[in-house]
Each structure stands twice: as C-alpha cells, then as structure tokens.
Write a structure and sequence with these properties.
Low-confidence stretches: 184-201, 414-418
Number of strands: 0
Order of helices and strands: HHHHHHHHHHHHHHHH
Radius of gyration: 23 Å
Largest sheet: none
Helix content: over 70%
Distance between the termini: 64 Å
Length: 418
C-alpha cells in the first residue's frame, strides 16, 4: 500500500503542471504557440527515451534505487521551471521533467510485481492506477484554485507541487523498500515467463516482435492507447467543442466523471474479473472503446443531447480503464523473457507514449481539415484492431500451453495379450 500512496503523491505534479503549461508558455510568458507545443512534445520525447532505459536499469539494479533516482531527477527539473526565464531553459526543464516522470514508471511496475503475490497482482495494479488517477485529479484541482496565469510566477505553485510530490514519493518508496519482502513466487520465477529465455544480447524490440504473444500484446498496447488515451487531453475536447458545440465547462465535467467512475468501480471490477483470462478482458476493453466511439458519433445526430452523451462517453471509457489497468502490465510481465521484465515493461511504455504523443497531431490535422467522419472512423477501426489483437494474444497463449503440455501416453500392448 505504500507503493500505491507513493504513486498517488508522485502524480500530483502531472495534474499540477501539464493542464496549464501550454497557456503559461504561450500566453503568460508570451513565448508563443511554437514554444508551448514544443514543451509538450519534448515532454513526450523525454518519456520515450527514458522509459526503456529505466526498464533496463530496473533489471540490473534494485528498482527502488531506479524509481527514487528518477523521481528526484523529475523533482529537480520541476523546481528548475520556477527560475526558467528563457524559452530554452523552459524547454530543457520540460524534457527532463518528462524523463523523470516516465523513468520512474517501469521501476514502480517492477516493484508492484515484486511486492505482491500472483494472487494479489491485479489488485495491486488496480489500486496503483486508482491512486495515480486520484493524485492527478487532486493536483489539477488544487492547482486550478491557486494558479494565476496572469502573472509570470502564477504557475510556480504547480512546479512546487510537482517537485514536492516527487520528493515525498521518493522518500516513501525508499522506506518501503527497506522492509519489503519479495514473495517466493516472484523470487523463483519473477516473470512467470511462458518460455525461459536468456537473451540479453538480443534487442528487446526484436524479442517482442519475434514472440507472437508479446507481438500481439504490443499491438494491443498501441491500439488501446490510440483508441482513448491519445485523445483524452486534446482530440476529444477539440471534437466536443468544435464539432458538438459543447461548452468548455463540459470538458472539465467529463474528465471529473471519468475519474469518479474509476474510483467508484475499480475495486468491484477487480473482484468481478479476478478469474477471467487477461486477453479476454482486453478484448472487452476494445469492445468498450468501440461502443464509446459509436456513442460519440451518434452525438452529432442529437445536438440537444450532445453534452450529456459526451460526458457519458467519458464514463464509458472509464469502465474500460478499470479493466485495462489491472490486467495489461501483469500480462506483459508474465510474457517477458526472464531477467528482462523491466526492459519489456519500459519498451511497451515507450511504444504507448510514442503513439499517444502522435494522437493530438492526428486529431488536429483531421478535425482542422473538417474530416470529422475520418476522425471518428479511424478510432472505431483502431478499437476493432485492439479487439482482434487481444484475441490473437489469447490464441498464442492457448497454443503455447498446448506445446508445453506433455503428450498423452498410451500403454504399449504386450505380446501374448498379458
């Protein structure tokens, strides 16, 4: 539970900075839209670079040290933004902030695996995800009350919140690590790997795409990210405001509903799905994404109900998130080659980040060109691919179990009929 608390406190900075940094850079500091967009892009670039590296370090060094070091780097970067009076310094700070935030993620995922038994693993990941959602929401809410974008130092409270959140989170993880006991099931077979592979000399991407179950899991990771997370902060709000004509306050209400639904049903959903196959559950998540995008498409046909449909859709997405969050990372870890859990999780996180970062650009091009139907159909198609990819993961796991099972033996007849 200390890891859950640490993750929640660490995510305060995400909510305290990212929703406001664009307006702060573009308008408050008068650096222009290019610098503001560049800061967001560099944040994603930092995440893309740091996650695989931190995953590899988590396989070779104690993940507690990796998580603590990454978050302290993130804290220093967030604090540096307070004194960043030039665009270059601000861009550099956002780059390192993204690196610190994302580098801690695979290390904390490895810790969640180490500090839980196989029976409790989904529950731990579910609580961790819920804590992070609450922390991000709390950070955005608190910063929203205190941030003043009419002043040059108006976002300092957000920077301080991020720095303090990382520092406190690091202290909690360090203390938890001193008394943690690794369960025997993790110590004896930390990955639960379906095949014992010692392949450090091979690139992790080559291993992922050479292993059917991992390859299709990577596709599930990418498509589910594209189907919702890539559009959560930009594409969906743009669609709601420019196409459906909803008030900007509706966007905030929808985000709040998303968080509240996650908090309300996460524990119940873990219990309901505890005995279900992970790939089958991910097929369900893809199907929920499809339903949500069909609802968003239908909202154009009912302008009077568009706001209600938009808010409800965020709640529908949240139902899928409560299934997705406890399942995907444990599944990925179970498929990882032995000794490469951190690298596999970090690489998957990097793939997710790369495609998520491309989401706002795709939305901007399509919606800016008036291709609303293309925007909707593309995300419907991506969600259908996610369902298919999860089904292929299921097939690959079934096939691997058949190979692993010893053949049935029959008694050999003895001459003479004895």
């Amino acid at each position: 539970m200390l890891l859950v608390l640490a993750s929640s406190i660490g995510s305060l900075g995400w909510g305290g900075i990212l929703p406001y940094q664009y307006a702060y850079a573009a308008e408050t500091r008068d650096w222009g839209a290019l610098v503001a967009a560049g800061a967001a892009s560099l944040f994603s670039v930092g995440a893309l670079v740091a996650a695989p590296l931190a995953g590899r370090l988590s396989d070779r060094f104690p993940p507690v040290r990796v998580a603590v070091a990454a978050q302290l780097i993130g804290a220093a970067a967030a604090a540096s933004l307070i004194v960043a009076d030039e665009p270059g310094a601000f861009l550099a700070g956002m780059l390192v902030f993204g690196m610190g935030l994302s580098a801690a993620a695979p290390a904390k995922q490895v810790l969640a695996l180490q500090w839980s038994s196989s029976d409790d693993r989904r529950k731990v990941f579910a609580y961790k995800f819920t804590g992070e959602a609450l922390g991000m929401a709390a950070g955005a809410f608190i910063a929203g009350l205190l941030v003043d974008l009419d002043r040059h130092d108006g976002l300092d409270v957000g920077f301080l919140m991020a720095a303090a959140g990382f520092a406190v989170s690091s202290a909690i993880i360090w203390l938890a690590g001193r008394g943690a006991v690794v369960p025997t099931d993790f110590a004896s077979d930390p990955t639960g790997s379906i095949r014992a592979v010692e392949a450090r000399s091979r690139g992790i991407l080559r291993i992922i795409f050479a292993t059917p179950a991992l390859r299709w899991t990577a596709i599930v990771t990418i498509t589910l990210a594209l189907g919702f997370y890539a559009q959560f902060e930009a594409g969906l709000p743009a669609y709601g405001i420019t196409v459906l004509g909803v008030d900007p306050t509706v966007i905030g209400t929808a985000a709040a509903v998303n968080c509240l639904v996650i908090v309300a049903i996460q524990v119940v959903m873990v219990r309901l799905t505890a005995k279900r196959s992970a790939p089958v559950l991910l097929m369900g998540v893809g199907a929920i994404w499809v339903i949500a995008w069909l609802g968003l498409s239908a909202a154009q046909l009912a302008p009077g109900l568009a706001a209600a449909i938009f808010v409800t859709t965020y709640g529908v997405f949240a139902v899928g998130e409560t299934i997705y969050s406890p399942v995907l990372n444990p599944l990925t870890a179970s498929l990882a080659p032995k000794g490469m859990v951190g690298q596999t999780l970090g690489t998957m996180a990097a793939l997710q980040t790369a495609f998520t970062a491309a989401g706002p650009l795709v939305a901007g091009v399509l919606l800016g060109a008036g291709l609303v139907d293309g925007f909707l159909w593309m995300h419907l198609g991506v969600s259908v691919v996610a369902v298919f990819a999860a089904w292929r993961v299921h097939r690959a796991l079934v096939a691997s179990r058949r190979v692993a099972e010893p053949p049935l033996t029959r008694p050999i007849p003895v001459a003479g009929g004895a």
